[in-house]
Write a structure and sequence with these properties.
CATH class: Alpha Beta
Helix content: 25-40%
Mean pLDDT: 94
Number of domains: 1
Shape: globular
Order of helices and strands: EEEHEHEHEHEHEEEHHHEH
């Protein structure tokens, strides 16, 4: 089974232009993501997929593999699709690795890849148990409910499920196991082209969550539970916090 890792990376960002090239203790963000992904034992190859010449040349400068893609892609999934067609037509699965998580664990990538031995798996992603109330009620953190066989049932920015009989929300974590979504995806090679042709669905538009489009169209998303926290960098302020931690 050939699994390739693709890191979508674009220069333009409303909150943090040039984010992939931001310096983190002597290495760019995109280089750190690339090097972490390369440590994953499950991946046959790792490529950056970008739409910007500056990123393209930078990845080449540190010896990374990179493919140029269109500037018109609305999502990282669409960018992965073009990169897959150009560079990996023989791949069995593609793993979309977020370009703004410079400390992603190789073990997380390998955990996601372990889901792919199940013949029923069309798509897969990671979740993590929520252990604090700030995350539990933060609408910027997508939550997910899953089946007993570890397939996603629904994603929401709201806290799901709602514990109707527990009025004191400050005790909800004592009564139920909640999960947050970790934004890394695996796509079966024959499924990726199909989901990029789907039009935005009503649930996706309501929640502003792309993965709801796939669920609403009948695709199954396998989930694995990781114990590792992820650190995403969305703004310059996030970057400064990470530097302080380091």
């Amino acid at each position: 089974m050939k699994i390739v890792g693709i890191i979508p990376s674009r220069y333009e960002s409303s909150r943090f232009p040039g984010k992939p090239l931001a310096d983190i203790q002597g290495k760019s963000m995109i280089q750190r993501v690339y090097e972490q992904a390369q440590k994953a034992e499950s991946l046959s190859e790792v490529y950056v997929a970008t739409d910007d010449e500056r990123i393209f040349e930078h990845v080449q400068s540190f010896g990374g593999k990179v493919v140029m893609t269109s500037t018109e892609h609305p999502t990282g999934t669409d960018r992965c699709q073009e990169a897959y067609e150009k560079a990996f037509p023989s791949a069995d699965f593609i793993i979309n690795i977020q370009g703004d998580e410079p400390f992603i664990k190789p073990e997380q990538i390998d955990l996601l890849a372990s889901c792919l031995s199940d013949d029923r798996v069309e798509l897969a992603t990671l979740v993590k148990e929520i252990d604090d109330y700030e995350t539990l009620f933060n609408v910027n953190t997508p939550k997910v409910v899953i089946t007993t066989e570890y397939f996603a049932r629904y994603f929401s920015r709201q806290t799901i499920p709602y514990l109707r009989n527990i009025e004191d929300k400050s005790t909800w974590l004592e009564h139920h196991t909640f999960y947050k979504h970790i934004g890394i995806y695996a796509y079966r090679a024959d499924v990726l082209p199909k989901i990029t042709k789907l039009v935005p669905s009503s649930l996706e538009l309501a929640e502003s969550l792309e993965q709801l489009r796939w669920l609403e169209n009948g695709y199954k998303i396998k989930v694995a539970v990781t114990e590792f926290e992820t650190i995403g960098i969305d703004t310059p302020e996030d970057l400064e916090k990470v530097k302080e931690l380091l």
